[in-house]
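Good morning,

Attaching, inline, the backbone tokens for the sequence recovery test we're adding to the shared suite. The designed sequence is right after.
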């Protein structure tokens, strides 16, 4: 069976992170791969900077640099890259990797090995470590309680040596910074759902994976260092954070509408509870956020 993997790196206004990510992939991965960098219609100078890098850096000559015509979100941007790869290469696997990540050793070979070790492999994720605290775990996967609407990142904040290895067997979803799938999986389950502009697309994919008889797995030997929140600049008190939370809240409702309609009240309770807490602690901007989500007002003020 072919090992050829198409690696999709999606860029939006973050060319410096993307260049660091791509350079780390070129340095450390030695097995067969094609690397597709998708610029998701950036509104800064990202496209020109990436083109300049490809023209001037000899290591980038084989990088496939493509651009979407509009920014339709994380899922659509990654799907654009997968479709490009399917058209041009005979890839057995696809690795969707956030642009705000780097690797310090071969993180691809272990993903392939883990995938092949389980006939029910659907989506395989890496062990995500904090970029600025490389000994601290961000997540090895996630758990989701549909009755409470609560999401937990497994291993969050633990030192690498403190991980309970049994935890990796109880993964409900793979964290979206590193998503590894096969061509067969895509043909069976489909691409990422473009119903989501940002957030919960990996949860949706994982739910569909399980419904089709696949498992979601964590590969602890595949280590990826993640600048968590860098790609969305999701800082607690920023205006951008309110925009990001809009997508989180909106898409939580969508998850329940699609898969748990009998629990339709859960996301509304969660959103109201979180909004009230934020209103008390910060400012009344979150009241407007709550009104927009609950009453389905379209939010046009996405911060570029």
């Amino acid at each position: 069976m072919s090992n050829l993997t198409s690696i999709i790196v999606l860029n939006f206004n973050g060319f410096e992170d993307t260049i660091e990510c791509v350079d780390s992939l070129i340095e450390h991965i030695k097995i067969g791969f094609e690397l597709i960098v998708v610029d998701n219609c950036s509104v800064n100078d990202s496209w020109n900077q990436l083109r300049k890098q490809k023209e001037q850096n000899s290591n980038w000559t084989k990088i496939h640099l493509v651009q979407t015509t509009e920014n339709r979100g994380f899922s659509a941007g990654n799907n654009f890259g997968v479709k490009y790869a399917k058209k041009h290469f005979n890839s057995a696997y696809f690795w969707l990797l956030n642009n705000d990540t780097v690797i310090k050793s071969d993180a691809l070979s272990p993903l392939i090995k883990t995938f092949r070790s389980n006939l029910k492999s659907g989506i395989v994720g890496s062990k995500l470590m904090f970029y600025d605290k490389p000994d601290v775990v961000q997540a090895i996967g996630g758990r989701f309680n549909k009755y409470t609407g609560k999401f937990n990142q497994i291993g969050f904040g633990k030192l690498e040596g403190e991980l309970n290895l049994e935890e990796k067997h109880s993964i409900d979803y793979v964290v979206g910074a590193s998503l590894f799938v096969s061509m067969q999986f895509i043909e069976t389950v489909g691409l990422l759902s473009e119903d989501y502009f940002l957030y919960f697309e990996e949860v949706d994919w994982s739910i569909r994976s399980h419904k089709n008889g696949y498992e979601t797995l964590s590969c602890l030997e595949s280590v990826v260092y993640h600048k968590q929140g860098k790609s969305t600049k999701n800082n607690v008190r920023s205006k951008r954070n309110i925009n990001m939370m809009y997508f989180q809240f909106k898409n939580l409702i969508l998850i329940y509408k699609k898969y748990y309609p009998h629990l339709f009240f859960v996301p509304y309770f969660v959103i109201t509870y979180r909004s009230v807490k934020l209103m008390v602690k910060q400012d009344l901007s979150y009241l407007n956020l709550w009104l927009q989500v609950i009453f389905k007002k379209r939010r046009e003020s996405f911060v570029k």
